[in-house]
Specification:
2 domains; homodimer; Arylsulfatase, C-terminal domain; glycoprotein (chains A, B); disulfide bond (chains A, B)
Amino acid sequence: MDQRRWKAPLWSFVIVVHMLSMEIQSTATNTPNVIVMVMDDMGWGDLGVFGHPSKETPNLDKMAAEGALLPDFYSGNPLCSPSRASFLTGRLPIRNGFYSDNAHARNAYTPQNIVGGIPECEILLPEILKKAGYRSKIIGKWHLGHREQFLPLKHGFDEFYGSTNCHFGPYDDKETPNIPVFRNGEMIGRYYEEFEINQKTGESNMTQLYIEEGLKFIQEQNSAGKPFFLYWTPDATHTPLYASKDFLGNSQRGLYGDAVMELDSGVGRILALLKDLKIDNNTLVFFISDNGAATYEKENGGSTGPFLCGKQTTFEGGMREPTIAWWPGKIQPGLILHQLGSIMDLFTTAIKLAGLEVPQDRIIDGTNLLPALLKQEINTSKSIFYYRGNELMAVRQGLYKAHLWTWTNSIQEFIHQFIEKMIKSETKPIIPTPKSFEVLSFRRQFVKISDDSDNVNFCPGENVTGVMSHQQVNHTDSPLLFNLGLDPGEKYPISNTSAVYKSVMPGLQAVVQEHKKLLVPGTPQLNLCDRAVEHWAPPGCEKLHKCLPVPKSKPVKCVWPH
Amino acid sequence: MDQRRWKAPLWSFVIVVHMLSMEIQSTATNTPNVIVMVMDDMGWGDLGVFGHPSKETPNLDKMAAEGALLPDFYSGNPLCSPSRASFLTGRLPIRNGFYSDNAHARNAYTPQNIVGGIPECEILLPEILKKAGYRSKIIGKWHLGHREQFLPLKHGFDEFYGSTNCHFGPYDDKETPNIPVFRNGEMIGRYYEEFEINQKTGESNMTQLYIEEGLKFIQEQNSAGKPFFLYWTPDATHTPLYASKDFLGNSQRGLYGDAVMELDSGVGRILALLKDLKIDNNTLVFFISDNGAATYEKENGGSTGPFLCGKQTTFEGGMREPTIAWWPGKIQPGLILHQLGSIMDLFTTAIKLAGLEVPQDRIIDGTNLLPALLKQEINTSKSIFYYRGNELMAVRQGLYKAHLWTWTNSIQEFIHQFIEKMIKSETKPIIPTPKSFEVLSFRRQFVKISDDSDNVNFCPGENVTGVMSHQQVNHTDSPLLFNLGLDPGEKYPISNTSAVYKSVMPGLQAVVQEHKKLLVPGTPQLNLCDRAVEHWAPPGCEKLHKCLPVPKSKPVKCVWPH
């Protein structure tokens, strides 16, 4: 809807209302539906079409062959909650408040003791789409805050089926409550209780429930003749991994691959239904993941393909996403689009598709992908900003990426188990400082660590000297520059004395300056934690007789170690 | 041809000759053609369908969609000459003599000062196919020895267009002659002279010549109504990289990507011609590479995708190959075949396809892929043997791979440049021993090496503790075991105290023992080097007035540093 209409004199009000009513009616038959499928911790390299040797995704590969593959597409953040908030607001987490400034450059998210959530002042995608008559549903993981004021139905969604937080557990419902599963505004059970995830086998029916729920919603909206927005976001590829009985053991890479195969089958079923209902030509479907593969989960994590490091980092493995856009009859089949883009662009694109305008009173980071998708008009001025918490770590424009800051994870986390062992074996304990690491790293060559399961390593098996570091390194005076075309794995920094560095860097520095100049950080929402806000007594608990006593409130600063 | 026929009594000779003549006639219309496309140093991860983000291979991706993709397929060796010799003989280099025992576990090949080549006693694929009336041509790089007795036409090929060795150069024709390009038995010019490769721009027309030559051969054989074997093996992705004018600058990863795009276009043109001539249903086409990506070439090398290390190593990056089989009407389109296989299987498969039998008087390592390709009957007992020179480094069966030996490259090569710098900056020179490396490695954390171009690193940016090493490590008593399904990147060795290790390792050890029991190493062909055998005066040089004086023979042991 053109916002200028509202500036028209009062006498035109009746006409405008009439036009609006017409617009809503017309959307019933013409306004395209939007489905955004956001996977959880799935990596760029996990799709067959993005090269995983296990080849578990025939339906996604077919979706790419029928639609457009976007190899240069990014999440809004290397971590889940901020990335999901960036999608639904079209804005970087630093603007919408989904970050913490408790410590410099730390990733924060929404565990169940988080006090904050999506601020009331943020305008979410379904709130806007409602103006064009869309009915919106989220199926799967919300993660934008779980206290009542933050729930999906308070922020534009008409329906919700899924969980508010990660399916961590099982808990004892005494020290910590299990995470609830919601239908709309009320909980209908808890993970590991009514919604079983078998810890030993990894068996769970959740993905099947999410698939069925998606199919049902599409059928209902089709029958009602209403345009819809479906945010389908199952979480089976996030640890603890799970798959249903029919999929367990089907892949060659264990539970992770089984989960991928089940999600892939779900994608296939959803696209097949759109074809059966003959609404495939009127439905734009995006497939993407919320952040890079959780490489620190080792064999239980996904693949970052050729990219460096994984989730939690601002190297490519942390934010480059497996992305497909599908719209039969509109998007040229088999298109490979090297349009730089981010999950925030799906916000703007969906709004444009509905014939509406994005909010004009704030900076929206998402840009409209329709020219690229429909006419292959590439926006070459598009930039990608890589944040870690409150710090702009890197920027990409074209094929060039400049790191202003680098950090993998802290030395304390990285050698946790090793330090434990050394302390036990040494007469003098070793204090984990960067200096002591040198000694430890040195010795590590000769000590075979058979079980380093307590160590945290966001870049297992990788070591790029001068690029990866266990200390936060400030490169702002002379950023580390990479050509991601020649060097997608960020292994070979371009010398800062080279001609190409001198020609490229001023442009990137200007992009950074412009960005910083216009930046008004939102109030950080992820600073405070409190046991009292955990899921003791979510809405609906009375009906199920599952309300638990709420402990006394004692807000503390959340600890974000990386 | 069934070899038992030759044991029949003499009176049946006339009948046999008659049958043979019928067989040759019938092949003219029914015997399938075979095209094997072997790329040079192209990596598993370079194809679009195997995940490279640059997506430079639309024709190969289409070939895979129309045919079968084989993600678990291997070269015969992590280096070019031995791998190519293994293809054409169906036998491991340790058997056919394409190795050196000058030093333990060293990769050797056929530079122009090599004395040896393919032994006379080896039976090459075209020699066998000739029995079924095939005409055979090699286009591109031979690499099985360049002295007269080793040339393609002496070993069963009817035609040859290409070079005998790598296109290294330019040389001065005094200290070293430039490498010749041959047509059949005679040279028709030299690289950097009649066959230009522009050193500055990387422009060369060679790939176009190789494409045209391939198209012409196919058309000629089709007109003649004869079955053919085309070994199409251009070398543009081997350094020095090159591409023709129309392809220069087309990719987003520089000359390497441009070369890939040109080769991909060649594949497309060849497959299109087969369709135009309506012989696509009678032609089996394989696409593969000779070894892993040359990761030590940094931005000028290919991609190993998710696999560890590259060319020259027996980690997956050194030997896992981008492999496609294409045969419209016979191979189910879009098939993903997790059949373990190697380039040696193409030898056996081509022979079976021609209705012939492999030699019975020697061990043939190649196995017949037709049951897997045509009926999806997977041979689960297939093993892959990973050799480095004269040493069996690793073995794979099913998803499990055991390393008996590990080695990346020597510490001397790895820190060559660094040692040079240290020696210059130190009052006391540092002797490059494993012990001194500890010190250097230690300091390396703090010294940013801006130009380490003289260093050799087969695993840039990678560091898997206890798996990668700069010394040769003997694990035969307790092999390093990986599940390549769970862990394709060989990052997480399975503990040798685990139940899975204890259940899997005896089977793998039995495979190794059986292999070693039957092994009769061939006479090593790559031990001796001699300046006198260089391309001073190849056959045909007189006609071109390009014969150079031959220096006095002085054979020496070749030096193979890794």
